[in-house]
Amino acid sequence: MAESVFRKVGLSRTESAELVETVIDEICNAIVRGESVKLSSFATFQVRDKNERIGRNPKTGEEVPISPRRVMTFKASNVLKQRVLKAHLTRKAKQKHADAAS
Predict the structure, then answer these.
(1) Residue 93: inside a domain, yes or no?
(2) For a Cys staple, 57 with which of 25, 30, 62, 84, CB 3.0–4.6 Å?
């Protein structure tokens, strides 16, 4: 990412790396504080509190309590989902075309 910032923004490589690290640190700090972080056209990161629940050991079938905890969720934006789908379909079409040609 720092290399892209360097090429597209015109900062030095060092400044680009520092900028990227600062942004990532700020995102991480906000998530640790329990804040939601929305990156437009990319995703939303949220922290959720999960209650204690009963789980099951898959080997023994024994019921085991799972402690309450905080988890981070990642929800991709519709823009990102569409980009991923488009890239997948493009690759699939190219592969189909290559298979037909051989």
Answers:
(1) no
(2) 62
